[in-house]
Design a protein that fits this description.
This protein has about 190 residues and is an alpha/beta fold. Helices cover about 50% and strands about 20% of the residues. The protein has a single domain, classed as Rossmann fold (3-Layer(aba) Sandwich). The strands form 2 sheets. Strands 1-9-2-8-7-3-4 form a 7-stranded parallel β-sheet, with helices on both faces. Strands 5-6 form a two-stranded antiparallel ribbon.
Length: about 190
């Protein structure tokens, strides 16, 4: 069952510090700055706690995130060199497991397992962010998006990592309430 949790920007670090393994969180946002504030808190909080962090995002969001993390004092070069911070272009990630516009279960599991193995080096707890589903949703691949959310949720519980997804509100053009219900059903928390 999902819950709606409003998170004031000033409390992001506290919120992200309280997430549990296997937590699957979705954020709906209107402006990139809102997403990037939350994402910097999620990623930066994990890195500062010694966790492994995987980010699957667009080039624009990866660059903006790197700027925010560097400005907050995170040593990204060190984190990247130790596979504590693994950033992958979302479009490239989709190419690893999508077959005929549908996520292949085994290819997806293999792709994520490889990333998790790198991020867990030394027994680190892992948190992951992905906007793969947002890209698919924006392309109108609704059923494939729901399937991918299911696969993420399943792996999240099998491999014990926290997962954060984000959807721009602009993507909800056809029956927004029904769309939100579909997405809510696959997440433990909604922001």
């Amino acid at each position: 069952m999902s819950s709606n949790i409003p998170v004031p920007a000033t409390q992001n670090s506290v919120f992200w510090g309280e997430i549990a393994p296997c937590e699957h969180i979705a954020q709906f946002y209107e402006h990139d700055s809102v997403l990037l504030d939350a994402l910097a808190g999620f990623v930066g909080g994990g890195l500062k706690q010694g966790e492994g962090v995987i980010v699957l995002a667009t080039d624009e969001h990866l660059k903006a995130l790197d700027q925010r993390l560097n400005a907050s004092g995170v040593d990204l070069q060190k984190a990247k060199s130790q596979d504590q911070y693994i950033a992958v272009l979302a479009e490239d990630a989709l190419g690893k497991f999508m077959v005929n516009q549908w996520p292949d279960d085994q290819l997806f599991a293999n792709f994520v397992a490889e990333l998790l193995a790198r991020a867990q080096n030394g027994g680190r707890r892992v948190r992951a962010f992905g906007e793969l589903v947002a890209l698919m949703w924006a392309m109108g691949q609704i059923a494939a998006t729901v399937r991918l959310e299911f696969l993420w949720h399943q792996l999240c519980h099998q491999k014990s990592f926290s997962l954060f997804c984000a959807y721009p509100k602009a993507g909800f053009t056809e029956d927004p309430l029904k769309s939100l219900d579909v997405i809510r059903a696959t997440h433990s928390r909604i922001i």
